[in-house]
Write a structure and sequence with these properties.
Layout: H1 3-23, H2 37-48, H3 55-69, H4 75-89, H5 91-94, H6 99-123, H7 136-157
Pfam families: MreD (PF04093)
GO biological process, one term: regulation of cell shape
Family: Belongs to the MreD family.
Length: about 160
């Protein structure tokens, strides 16, 4: 298998695994701690392969996530598109941050994502979520260094550009 085909499969496979990880059920007690996996994987690919990641791709992945998750159509598409837009805008800076600063930037992006979700759900007429609902961005930010290093290591072992 040539490198280009392997790179495409690796890219698509990580996005698919992130969607499947989003669907994994957790006990009710642990549900607020589940990170938003598609956002974390999209952030990785935006930082590492910004030329490959587009807003249209983020929107399409978000629509797929909406269909799989059974939420309001366009909710996750809007969130992921906004997330990738901001990450692409500041990509040249974020890539060269030390890991602790990059983690803080990811936390800010994930909190922004939660605020967008809160606005969309408020317009849909849903009640305000409990306070534990805000834990997920912090869990995602705590997992960011490990996810980044794992995906980067696997990408280097496979010699994918």
């Amino acid at each position: 298998m040539n490198r280009t085909r392997l790179a495409r499969w690796w890219f698509a496979g990580t996005l698919l695994v992130s969607l499947l990880a989003m669907l994994l059920p957790l006990p009710t007690v642990l549900e607020p701690f589940k990170p938003y996996w598609p956002a974390l994987v999209l952030l990785y690919w935006t930082l590492e392969a910004g030329d490959r990641m587009t807003l249209g791709m983020a929107f399409a992945l978000g629509l797929g996530a909406d269909l799989l998750d059974g939420v309001l159509l366009g909710e996750q598409a809007l969130r992921l598109t906004a997330l990738v837009f901001i990450a692409l805008r500041f990509r040249s800076r974020l890539r060269f941050f030390p890991m602790w600063q990059q983690t803080l930037a990811v936390l800010a992006l994930l909190v922004n994502d939660r605020i967008l979700l809160l606005i969309v759900r408020a317009f849909a007429g849903e009640a305000l979520p409990p306070l534990a609902w805000w834990v997920s961005p912090f869990v995602g930010a705590a997992l960011w260094p490990f996810l980044f290093l794992l995906m980067d290591d696997l990408r280097m072992r496979l010699r994918i550009q």
